[in-house]
Description:
Elements: E1 4-8, H1 14-21, E2 26-28, H2 41-53, E3 58-63, H3 73-87, E4 97-102, H4 107-110, E5 111-116, E6 123-127, H5 136-142, E7 160-163, H6 164-169, H7 171-180
Parallel strand pairs: 1-2, 1-3, 3-4, 4-7
Antiparallel strand pairs: 5-6
Amino acid sequence: xxxxxxxxxxxxxxxxxxxxxxxNLDIVDKSLNxxxxxxxxxxxxxxxxxxxxxxSTVTIHLIGSKSAENLGEEEQRYIKRELQASLYHGESNTxxxxxxxxxxxxxxxxxxxxxxxxxxxxxxxxxxxSDETTIKEFHRNYFxxxxxxxxxxxxxxxxxxxxWHDFIANPSVCVEQAFLKxxxxxxDKIKVRPE
Length: 195
């Protein structure tokens, strides 16, 4: 079954957005290009949901070289609001699944390679998902705090992360994985506006 997707991206990554639009996916092609004139954060999130995200169930968040939290609030205001609105679960709307797609320019910064877990001996892939690589709205809901196991599994994360190459090989499977997180018990631990 096809899922309706919204793409959250930085202007520098527009070519990847265009490539996704050519795939066999149902894309909601609306972008938040202007600030919503209000100081009420709940109103802003509701307006983004109503005017930009209402028809979507999954937000594809492109993670490129300009997606880092540490670039500053002003630089990231649109993608932060898009993810906040995607995570927002309120009256007459449901939250979106979040699919983070790591673009090739970020592979070396995010994928740090396999290592053995010191506690259980399992081989795990080390990832740099932090303020250095993406906005808090993504990484806080990927590595959800108060985790008690020795390492994270897919059941411990709300956001789904895939490489660009894995995404283009099977986009529908990746989108469906993010969609299914909406009803997963981990969705109770989402933080819409992480500090």
